[in-house]
Amino acid sequence: MPPILPSHRYLNEHSIAYERRSFSPETEKGATNVANALGYRERQMIKTLIFEVVDTGEKALIMVGGDQSAKSGLLKKALGSRNIRMADPDAVLAFTGYRIGSIPPFGWQPDGTRTFLDEALMQEAVLGVGTGQWGEEILISPTNLVQAAHATVVKLVEETP
Description:
Blueprint: H1 6-13, E1 19-22, H2 31-38, E2 46-53, E3 59-65, H3 72-79, E4 84-86, H4 89-96, E5 114-118, E6 127-130, E7 136-140, H5 142-149, E8 152-154
Parallel strand pairs: 3-5, 5-8
Antiparallel strand pairs: 1-7, 2-3, 2-4, 6-7
């Protein structure tokens, strides 16, 4: 049995339902590869991104589907600043305690960290999020993810027709 990770403990302590799934740690990084390994659509495997507001140094957690990219204008509106950028890998590690590739969207955030989930993901039956350890994934309902991550649901992605 794989180890109980801090992300699992967090969900257990808060009585939030989820399912543990494992895939080969030899799997190449990326949401597409996780989706293929677990038998889900890429959209359902969440990218957990850290953006920073340059003026203030505030860092925010952004969640979009594996096949999506946050639209700059929508992200700037959500963060309330025109001067934002994706945090570099060293800043992400210092802020989250995790390396890019399997950042859990809950359980580590300093007080006041803002977290956003793209609204289209609320239509999915299940979403997959990282556990902090490559090869381990958490499957969780969108509603439970919002609760666990204290996320604000906003439009972050422009869907193409």
